[in-house]
Every structure is written in C-alpha cells, then in structure tokens.
Amino acid sequence: MDAQKVDMFIMTNSKFFEGHQLPMIRERLLEMDDSKWVMIQTLQFKDPTTSLIVSLLAGGFGIDRFMIGDTGLGVGKLLTCGGLGIWAIVDWFMIMGATRQKNIEKLQQVLY
C-alpha cells in the first residue's frame, strides 16, 4: 500500500492505539494490498478518553465496559455495583488500555 496513505492513517488514528503498537501497524498496512483499504477506512475505533470519562461518571454500573464491547465484564460490574466500588476505581486506571486493546483487536481482524 502507499506509504503516504499509511502515514495519514497513523497520524489520524494514533490516539486509539498504544505507542509501541504503531510500528507494527505501519508495517502491516504497508504489506497489505489496496483492496482492504476501504474496509480499514470505515472502521470505527473507540476513543480511550471518552471511555475514561464514562468510567469516572458511571463506571460503577459497567457502562464503560459495555461501551468497549466487554459485555461479560459490564454485566459483572453492573450486578456487583462496580465490585462494591473497588472494581470501578481500578477501572479508572485500566479502561484506557482496555479500550486501546479492543481497537487493536478490531484492526487485526481486518489485517489478517
């Protein structure tokens, strides 16, 4: 694929992934054929900052986990009221990483 397209994708979407994953993403995109480019452009990634805000405001109800697609963990947080508050507080520190992990998994489904 064209290096200019790949660099533009990396620049516009770098906040959705961990910094150490960006070189691997760039390599995979450069190796990929142009037929998958449209699919990659239509992917909707979750914003880690939005996940953090939702976690701070309503994390005890599991809404943050439902939002990123962790339905099982969302139900668990909902039923336990955020693990009596402890799980909700722990998620304040972990939800951004979990969101970025879900984003990379979504991208890898298209790349492989």
From TrEMBL:
Residues in TM2 domain copies: 45-93
Query: What compartments host this protein?
Result: Membrane
The protein's matches in InterPro entries, at most eight in alphabetical order, are given as:
TM2, TM2D1-3-like
Q: Where are the transmembrane segments?
A: 74-95
Write out the entry's keywords from A to Z.
Answer: Membrane, Transmembrane, Transmembrane helix
**Looking at the keywords, is DNA-binding present?**
no
Q: Which domain of life is it from?
A: Bacteria
Topology with regard to the membrane?
Multi-pass membrane protein
- Keyword check for Transmembrane: yes
Under the heading PANTHER family, the entry gives: BETA-AMYLOID BINDING PROTEIN-RELATED (PTHR21016), TM2 DOMAIN-CONTAINING PROTEIN DDB_G0277895-RELATED (PTHR21016:SF25)
Name of this chain's protein: TM2 domain-containing protein
Organism encoding this protein: Pseudopedobacter beijingensis
